[in-house]
Amino acid sequence: MINYTSRYEKLRAYMKDNGIDAVYVTSPENFLYMSGYNNPDGHMLITMTESYSYNDFRYIEAARAQSFETVKVCHTPEYSMFDVIKSDMIGTIGVEDTKLTMSGYAALLKGIEGSSCKTVELGECFTELRAVKEEYEIESIVAAQRIAEGAFDHILKVINYDMTEIEVAAELEYYMKKHGSEKPAFDTIAVSGKASSLPHGVPRAVKLERGFLTMDYGAMVNGYCSDMTRTIVIGKADENIKKVYNTVLKAQLDAEAAIKAGADCGEIDKVARDIIYGAGYEGKFGHGLGHGVGLLIHELPNQNMRSFGRKLVTGNIVTVEPGIYLEGLYGCRIEDMLAVTDDGAVNLTNCTKELIEI
User: Fold this and answer.
1) How big, in percent rounded to 5, are the helix, strand and coil portions of the chain?
2) Confidence band, pLDDT 50/70/90 cuts, at residue 78
3) Pick from 17, 139, 283, 296: most CB atoms within 10 A?
4) Which CATH number is correct for 4-129, 3.40.350.10, 3.10.129.10, 3.40.1260.10, 3.20.20.70?
């Protein structure tokens, strides 16, 4: 069960501490997080005592059936949140400054015109709340991950030299959809040969090239994402390919061993980075070691070179995804998801990391 009561208690404690009378929710992920149902075009007004969700005709039936029991479901435009703001004498309203569009903010200012209400930025309020996962959230992420792992097993059975990168991506996504994924957690990456040196390369309509094939993809269950990367070899691996792969794998395993509640995110990144740089690949690991996963594929906490001072806490779910990218040659990345515990971490990814040659 989802503990909505705890979510509202934490949000309202933040509101009280920061002198905020109401919060205006506009992003789809936070709307789902606080309301209990998915409406990408909905918005909410949450005060210290009440919560209102505003929905157009397309979503009103689902809203009434699925929303958290204390949320008051409103059918726009008959019910205006501006009437609530003015009638409740709300003095400050927190806005999702990293999500609200300029036109949306202009509409908000017009709606509260003539009142004493002022806007304040929420900053990382919701992302910090969502960084610590509840049991239901972890279960949903694990369910999505199991689907993704099934897709990896499937692709190893059907892959052949005549397939294109686009076909590999499509095969992964079709399997996940067929086995319960609501949609891909993000745009699937399947890039081979020289294109594998692009960390976020786009699958091409070309046959698989010899060398590394990197597949980075995820499923979605109950709105929650999974994220995994596996790199295999098309053809035979030479000694240089084996060195790259084994260096990335060692960096990942050592970084994973360092993950626990209280560990410094920047220091964990450094564990993997030092191994890669020490093996002669300095400057070839240009992205962060990992990130949080949840309703969005990239959430807090991040683990990168700018994360020193940020501590992991029990309930965080983070990726560990070191890589080496050699321009003009190939690239390799291996990625797992881990759930942080008091005395270590549980690897949520149950999938082989041996060097596979096709």
Assistant:
1) 40, 25, 40
2) low
3) 296
4) 3.40.350.10
Sheet with strand 43-47: strands edge to edge: 71-75, 51-55, 43-47, 22-25, 92-95, 118-121
Q: What is the mean pLDDT of residues 92-119?
A: 93
Q: Do domains 4-129 and 132-347 have the same CATH topology?
A: no
Rounded to whole angstroms, how far apart are CA atoms 257 and 271?
Answer: 10
List, in sequence order, every residue forming a beta bridge with 311; answer none if it has no partner: 264
- Find the radius of gyration of the CA atoms of the chain: 23
pLDDT at residue 6 in the model: 95
Q: Which helix (H) or strand (E) holds 106?
A: helix 102-111
Residue ranges of domains in the chain: 4-129, 132-347
Structure tokens at 202: 């786009």
d(CA 15, CA 316): 23
Q: What is the DSSP letter of 264?
A: B
Full DSSP string of 306-356:
T-TT-B--TT-EEEE--EEEETTTEEEE-BEEEEEETTEEEE------S--
DSSP-based three-state secondary structure for 89: coil
- Look up the pTM and report it: 0.95
| Class (C level, CATH) for 132-347 | alpha beta
**Model pLDDT for residues 181-228, shown as the tens digit of each residue:** 999 999 999 999 999 999 999 999 999 999 999 999 999 999 999 999
Q: Which helix (H) or strand (E) holds 46?
A: strand 43-47
Q: By C-alpha distance, which of 56, 50, 51 is closest to 30? A: 51
Query: Can you tell me the distance from the alpha carbon of 197 to that of 283, in angstroms, rounded to the nearest whole number?
Result: 13
Beta strand pairing call for 71-75 and 51-55: parallel
State which amino acid sits at residue 30. Answer: N
Rounded Cα gap, residues 329 and 248, in angstroms: 16
C-alpha distances in Å from residue 352, one per residue of 144, 228, 291, 292, 349: 17, 12, 21, 22, 9
Closest CA to 138 of 9, 314, 332: 314
